[in-house]
Amino acid sequence: MRSTLVVLLVTLSLGVGLAEGGEPRSATIPQIDQGKSLFERNCAVCHGIGGTGGRGPALTRSRLSRAPNDASLIELIRNGIPPEMPLGNFLADDDIVALASYVRSLGKSTPEDLPGNASRGAHLFLQYGCNSCHIFAGTGTGYGPELTDLSERRGTAYVRRVILNPRLSLPADFLMVSVQTREGETVRGIRVNEDTFSIQIKDANGTFHSYNKSTLIDLQRLSGETPMPKFEGILSEDDLRDLVAYLGTPK
Question: Which terminus of the chain faces fewer neighbouring Cβ atoms within 10 Å, N or C?
Fold first, then answer.
């Protein structure tokens, strides 16, 4: 019932509804101002001031993959994205609508300037073997996360932090594990899924393993560990700027 009420508020009362093709209509300036204040109090700690990104994704995009229209954005704000984004059900309905209006306005922001040399950054990406763990623009190996739209989703400041020291920016649900079976097999890799009785792991070769926990003699959760090395003290400032420019150039 409350979900329906919020959507009705968007469509009828506050004029933020959907135009033809599912695109948002323009919100009023008071709505956006109200939403900005709410955003800075409740959301900027993860998404950055102005929605430029941080621990949460950047919101300065014309289209958000998880919220392609206003109704889905309203629902996302209210329901959150466990475990990283908390529920917004403590907000009043009109506050949620105002917050959505402000987030939509961020998609009209001027694209971020990338001062580095993207061509040189492409060479560094290969030189340091980044493509052996990451897919970028359709090439590479997918042991680690795909990087094609990482800068757009998270912002270049986040990309920079991850390159320098990835342990400081691990997603809430990321976990390295090491298991040993009764047969003496030891596998170390990224946890893909886990429940009470089983666990699935992807190893460094990209191979998936699934185990019943009753067959394991050891299961170590390597909290805070990541297969990605830190490049702090390895990359020069010019190298880092060029690499970030390469990863942030639209593909």
Answer: N
Average pLDDT, the chain: 85
* Alpha carbons 178 and 216: distance in angstroms, whole number: 11
Residues 15 and 44 in one domain: yes
Same domain, 46 and 159: no
Dist CA 84 CA 57 (whole Å): 11
* 33 beta partners: none
Distance, in Å, from the CA atom of 7 to the CA atom of 70, rounded to the nearest integer, reads 8
- Per-residue pLDDT tens for 60-78? 877 787 888 888 999 999 9
Using one digit for the tens of pLDDT, what is the confidence trace for 222-238? Answer: 999 999 999 999 999 99
- 19 vs 184: CA distance, rounded Å: 60
Structural domain span for residue 122: 118-167+228-248
